[in-house]
Amino acid sequence: MGLTPSQRLVLYYMAFEVIYHGKTWFTFEDIQRGTGLATRTLRAALVSLRKQGFVESYLIPGRGRRLLHRLRLERILPEPELEGIYLIDVAGDVLTPDAVAILSKVDVVLYTDSVSTKRLESIAKRLERFTGEIPNARSIAIVFNSLLDWDKVAPLAPKARYICASNALDKAVGVCLTCGNVDIDLKTIKIKSPTPDIGKLLDQYDIVGSITVEGCGGRKAELIILKRRETT
Fold this sequence. Notes:
Layout: H1 5-21, E1 26-27, H2 28-35, H3 39-51, E2 55-59, E3 67-71, E4 84-89, H4 97-105, E5 108-111, H5 118-121, E6 127-129, E7 139-144, H6 150-153, E8 160-164, H7 168-173, E9 183-186, E10 189-192, H8 198-201, E11 205-215, E12 219-228
Parallel strand pairs: 4-7, 4-8, 5-6, 5-7
Antiparallel strand pairs: 1-3, 2-3, 9-10, 10-12, 11-12
């Protein structure tokens, strides 16, 4: 992008705070504390970043010439070609860069009741509660928690792209969900990468479908979705 080290540092700091802490607005003092840059260096960096379209700055009413700064996240993320429905699984508390790229680009972001909207408000163009209805839009992301909401989004799975937006599942088993064999019981559903012992699981679970998960450098894996069989 042809940026100086100080300009890159400002962008990295602001992007980190937006993605991981849901922060939208920054004062000059916020950025200075986060980057450690000298006053003159930071001021010059912000002026340049505004000219290049990476940062927007607004006067704080009643505070003289003090400014609030906002990162234009869409300028530093890769430009995905989005069309259709994306299921964004946020079972953990971290959004991956790929998930943020999608959430910031789709026309509409829908969220289930179990999902906090704090981070989404600073990313999404249009944010609405998911009621089961799909709006008329070219690209739609539905943010849900696979531990709690699978039944709500399951009917959409065959025609949607599944994105694991957090590393909660990976942490739980100590292995990447899309790069190694895992066996995770998600309360009423079971997600497992296919292995020879799949037959044992079918004694207690019914196959209800499959999803293709993308992660780890673009590698994809087909995961089988099993639902625990009701016992009488």
